[in-house]
Each structure stands twice: as C-alpha cells, then as structure tokens.
Amino acid sequence: MDFTFNDEQKMLEDMVYRWACDWLEPKMEEVDEKDEFPEDFFKETGKLDLNGVTIDEEYGGAGLGYTEACIVAENLARVSSALSMTWGAHLILCADNIQRNANKELKEKYLPGLASGELIGCLGITEPDAGSDAMAMRATAVKDGDHYIVNGSKTFITNAPVGHVLLFYAKTDPEKGPKGISALVTDIPVEGYQCNKIKKFGMRGSPTGELFFSDMKVPTENLVGVENGGVKILTSGLCTERIVLSACALGTMRAAMELSTKYAKERTQFGKPIGSFQAIQQKLADMYVSYQTAKWLTYYAAWYVDSLEEKSGGKGTELDKIAAAAILYASEACTRVCLDGVQIFGGYGYSLEYPIQRHLRDAKLWEIGAGTSEIRRLIIAREMLR
Ligand SMILES: Cc1cc2nc3c(=O)[nH]c(=O)nc-3n(C[C@H](O)[C@H](O)[C@H](O)COP(=O)(O)OP(=O)(O)OC[C@H]3O[C@@H](n4cnc5c(N)ncnc54)[C@H](O)[C@@H]3O)c2cc1C
C-alpha cells in the first residue's frame, strides 16, 4: 500500500493552498461579514485550471480523478469552506454529472464553459417539502412538442444566485414515483425561472438560492440520460458528491487544528503557553487523530471510486456505503474539532476577530448537505444488512 501523494498531487496541493492563502484569505473576513461571493473567484481558479479538474481534456478540463478533486477541495477549505463548497457544487455536482451522463451534444454545449469557469454550475435536487426524502420531489416536467414545461420549486441550491447552468431533477411521469424522475439541464436565468438568495449563519460567501419554476421551458434535447432514468444519475452523483465534500470537511478541520496548535503555542496564562497544559494537549491530540482518521477514510473513498471502471454508485453498491461513511465521519469529526478549537481560543474564539468561529459556523453544514448524518447512517446500515 502506498499512502503518499505522487509528485503531481503534491504540487497540486501546494499550488491550491498557496493560491488560497494569497488570494482568498485576505478577502475572507469581508466575504463572511457581507455574505458576498467574490465575483472573480471562478476567473481566478480558471487560471489555475481548477474548474474542470475531473472533466475530460477534450472538453477543456484537466482530465484528473476524484483524488485530485479531493486535494483541491481540502486545500480550498483550509482557507474558505464556503468557496470550497461553491467550487465543489460547480464541478462535482453540476459539470461532472453532465460529463458522466449527458450525450455528446450537451457535453459540447456546456462542459467547455464550465471547465473554464466562464459558466458557473449548480445542481437542484432539494425541494421545500422533499429534502431527505428526495424521491418525494414535486417539480414536474411535462413534454410539449420540442420542450418540457417545468413547474415547481427547489431550495438550498448552492451557486444558483450567481449560476448560469442548472442541472436539476423533475418528475416526467409522477405516477411512477421515483421511476418517473428525469434529469434535465437548463441555462439560467430564463423566462419562468426565479431565484431568491437565502440568508445563512455559515458558508457565507457561497450563495444559496431558492428557485421557482413557472412554466419554464427546457428543450427536450436538454434531457440528461434517458427519460425517467434520473434516479440512477441522482444517487450515483450523490456518492461522488459525498466523497469530495468529505475532503472539504477535512480542510475545515485542518484549518481549525492548525490555528489551534499555533494559538496554543502563542497564548500564555499562568506564565506558560496554554499548550503546556495537558487539558489543551489532549484536545490537540484528539484533533490530530480525528483529522488523520477522516483523511484516510476520505482519500480511500476517492481512490476507490477512481479505481472503478464504471463509476456508478447508488443503492446496492459498495461505493454508496464507502462514500456515506467518509462524509459521515469527516463531517462529525469536523464539528467536534472546530468546537474544541473555539474552546482552545477561549473568549477570543467567541469573538469575530479570529477566524476559528467562522470555521465552526461553516463546519455544521457538512453534517447536513448531501444528505444528513442520519440519512448517511441509514445508507451504511442498509448496505451492511443487505
Ligand atoms: C448551505 C446548503 C447548501 C445546500 N446545497 C444544495 C445543493 O446545491 N443542491 C441541493 O439539491 N440541495 C442542497 N442542499 C440541501 C441539503 O441537501 C438538504 O438540506 C438535506 O438533504 C436535508 O434536507 P432538509 O433540509 O429538507 O431536512 P429534512 O429532510 O427535513 O430533515 C430534517 C431532520 O430530520 C432528519 N430525518 C429526515 N428523515 C429521516 C429519517 N428517515 N430517519 C432519521 N432522521 C431523518 C434529518 O436527518 C434532519 O435531522 C443544501 C443545504 C444547505 C443548508
């Protein structure tokens, strides 16, 4: 077994983290305070070829694997979980699913723009009354000549307020329940589409929207995969999404661990650095163990999916279990580590002056997005008991 990154992967890690420190870090306090997406973010990540990491070279991407996507996600999140999530939603939730499931014409239409960052992507699964129970979605797409007429709503859609391309799911045959769901892609905004920005206590700077479709027309040629075949795309896509978001949680956790270690050496009380007290040392040691455990579970999951010829996940696959386990562990460990981080900073941890509180506010999301901890446990147990 080889647990080390190869030279290219190490260079990628270094490049992303350096860029995040130089370009993102100085902006983050203001981005967080104003909840404002830095509008040239994708232009800048485009210069580093990060917007199409997993997209084939023929469509303008870097043609790399999920391991490399995880490296990018982790190292962006070490500085900004919010922008790491925005990047992940653009690439993994939207572009990557188009690459894996759409026909050549749709790939040619959307992937080059997404891979360059000229277009920003997002994915719409969740609805106001269908979150964990995504199959209960109510949005409909009714065929009318050469268009689908789409009605309904979606909520909590990352990037939608600034997005250009929306991959989404709707019922094309509601009578059939989950077997009547299809995947469609549309340019946004279009007539019949409305997006309102949602206010959040964390992940500020990563824009989230609630969407309303009112007789929105989507050309029939924008169907992704086959009609009524959306569930497979949705559940398989959630696996890769969970793996890359695990890496985002790793980055958040690593930031909290590194900031806390530094602070424990600098802050003195009772005439000594607080890092000399065993109660603080134990917290630091627990942080390290959590980070390392989450790291190897996450990169194992990434390696696993990269090793599969056909990268399809969903019900009944080992990938479903591994991906759910990686994000379940990484996200819960991340919240624990960030809470301990705030404790190590004492009162300063509670003040907005130090970034540790931002990491804590952001961390909680990793236990909710891409299926909650409760749902991840259900998936793991379902596969164990199969
Ligand atoms: C910042 C943010 C960004 C997001 N980005 C996207 C995005 O880009 N695209 C997208 O489609 N969605 C996105 N989501 C939505 C996210 O995936 C959902 O919020 C999540 O799946 C939970 O759905 P819900 O919020 O409706 O909660 P609910 O499903 O209402 O759950 C509420 C509580 O009940 C629990 N629960 C529900 N069912 C069960 C059960 N069977 N057993 C035990 N417990 C259960 C849940 O675990 C949770 O604790 C985002 C959410 C947030 C907050």
Q: What labels describe this entry?
A:
single chain, 386 residues, alpha+beta, Butyryl-Coa Dehydrogenase, subunit A, domain 1, Butyryl-CoA Dehydrogenase, subunit A, domain 2, Butyryl-CoA Dehydrogenase, subunit A, domain 3, 3 domains, 4-stranded mixed β-sheet, 4-stranded antiparallel β-sheet, 12 helices, 10 strands, binds flavin-adenine dinucleotide
Secondary structure layout:
Layout: H1 7-24, H2 28-34, H3 41-47, H4 66-77, H5 81-101, H6 104-116, E1 121-124, E2 140-144, E3 147-158, E4 165-171, E5 181-187, E6 193-197, E7 208-219, E8 223-224, H7 230-266, E9 268-269, E10 272-273, H8 278-307, H9 318-345, H10 347-350, H11 356-363, H12 373-385
Bound molecules: flavin-adenine dinucleotide.
Short structural summary:
With 386 residues, the chain is of the alpha+beta class. 51% of the residues lie in helices and 15% in strands. It has 12 helices and 10 strands.
Explain this structure to me?
- With 386 residues, the protein is of the alpha+beta class.
- The chain has three domains: 7-120, Butyryl-Coa Dehydrogenase, subunit A, domain 1 (Orthogonal Bundle), CATH 1.10.540; 122-224, Butyryl-CoA Dehydrogenase, subunit A, domain 2 (Beta Barrel); 230-385, Up-down Bundle (Butyryl-CoA Dehydrogenase, subunit A, domain 3).
- 51% of the residues lie in helices and 15% in strands.
- The protein contains twelve helices and ten strands.
- A hairpin with a 2-residue loop joins strand 2 (140-144) and strand 3 (147-158).
- The model has no long low-confidence stretch (mean pLDDT 97).
- Bound molecules: flavin-adenine dinucleotide (FAD).
- The site of flavin-adenine dinucleotide (FAD) has 23 residues, from helix 5, strand 1, strand 3 and helix 12.
